[in-house]
Each structure stands twice: as structure tokens, then as C-alpha cells.
Amino acid sequence: MLELSFADGLLSAGGEYNFNNNSSSIDFNASHINSNLAARTLFGLENQVEGIACAKIHAETFNNLERLKAKGQFEINDGFLPKLGNTEFMVKKFNMSKKVKISSLTNADLTSADTFRSDINGSLILDNYKLEDIEMTTRHKSFATLLQGSYNIRGQEADINIYGKYDRQAPKGVKILFLPLNWIINFALRNDEAKAFYQKLILRRFNK
């Protein structure tokens, strides 16, 4: 398949189908894709991401398309995650659960596209209706994030860890938990420990 219109962009594919066991192996290449339309169409994620994306996906199907497994990598230029700040996360502590929004923990306006646009890179595995091994990074000049976890498309439930790295050269006054971010980082991890911690995560992410 040379070119197919998809999500305001182009999709091409090539592969093979095995008629003996009704399985297939296909490689997809996507370019100039509207990431919001693609996320809504493929995963039922409405208005969760913005930006123009490109992606490479290797997909395998089994038993007459009854089983689908795919691995993909994507890049979003000048992207934005509009609902990240206002998404409710369930925090468990001491056998108790509490819903928390990231926007309630910081005085930064995470819903502002003008403030928090950045290039976004990621990878994931799709196993039928489950997204697994999700890894996504944002590279804003002031505040970079790494998201890792899984997402159940049918149940619309996510299990995600979010790591943040604060640039000390960023404008002063950005706070989280109503305390300066660098104070939190220094309190939680000594400088040498913090450096090793983030280096391990980031190097593993980009050396895949």
C-alpha cells in the first residue's frame, strides 16, 4: 500500500499474509498525522494530545484478525498534552486512596499550550485492547517529563508513573506542592543520587 489518507496525513504499509495459519506481519509508516485524530480513532483517547506526528508500527495478526499485536514508535513535533494537568490520578497510601490532579500540586498552568508545547517522543506495545510498555517523553525547556505505564482501552483505565525534571535555569517561581521544585528534588534525592536516577531512566529510554 503506497499511500492512504489517514488522520489528515498519509499512511503506507507493506507486509505479508500467511494463508496456512491466517496470520499476517505488516509494517506501517505514518507521516504528517493529526495526533489528536489518530489517538481518538485508534485508542478512544479524546483531546488528549495535540501536534503533527510521524510513526512507525510493526503489527502482527493471528487467527483471522482475532488477535492483534503491534509495536510502535512515534514523534510529535511541537506537541502538547492538554489534559495531563487536569487528569485525576488515584494515589494510594496507608491503605487509603485519594484522587489528585497535577494542576492542584503546582502553580504552573499546565493547560496552556503556549507555555508547555514541546517535542514528544514515545513508544508502546498494543496487545488487542491493551497498551503496554508505554514510554513517552516531553522536552520542554523548563520542565521535561517521562511517562511510563499501561492503558486499558476498553476500561479506559491507566496505570502510569510520571517523572519530572526541572531546569534550574527556568523562570523562578514555578512551584510544585507549593514549594520550589528544586527544593523538592534536593530534599527527595541528593544531587548525586538525583543525577544517577534520571540518567538511568533517560538512557534506557533513548538507547532502545
What would you say this structure looks like, in words?
The structure is a single chain. This protein is α+β, with helices and mostly antiparallel strands. The chain contains four helices and 13 strands. The strands form three sheets. The chain has a nine-stranded antiparallel β-sheet with strand order 1-2-3-4-5-8-9-10-11. The chain has a two-stranded antiparallel sheet with strand order 6-7. Strands 12-13 form a two-stranded antiparallel ribbon. A hairpin with a 4-residue loop joins β2 and β3. The longest helix is centred in the last third of the chain and has 16 residues. The radius of gyration is 19 Å and the shape is globular.
Oligomer: single chain
Distance between the termini: 28 Å
Give unreliable regions as ranges. Answer: none
Characterize the largest beta sheet: strand count, sense, and whether it forms a barrel. 9 strands, antiparallel
Look at the helices and sheets and give the structural class: alpha+beta
Q: What spatial form do the alpha-carbon principal axes imply?
A: globular
Tally of DSSP helical segments: 4
Widest β-sheet, arrangement of strands: 1-2-3-4-5-8-9-10-11
Q: Give the C-alpha Rg.
A: 19 Å
Query: What is the element string, with H for helices and E for strands?
Result: EEEHEEEEHEEEEEEHH
Percent strand = over 45%
Number of strands: 13
How much helix is in the residues? 10-25%
Mean pLDDT: 78
List the helices and strands and how they pair.
Blueprint: E1 4-6, E2 9-18, E3 23-34, H1 35-43, E4 50-62, E5 67-80, E6 88-93, E7 96-101, H2 113-116, E8 118-127, E9 130-139, E10 143-152, E11 157-166, E12 175-176, E13 179-180, H3 181-188, H4 191-206
Antiparallel strand pairs: 1-2, 2-3, 3-4, 4-5, 5-8, 6-7, 8-9, 9-10, 10-11, 12-13
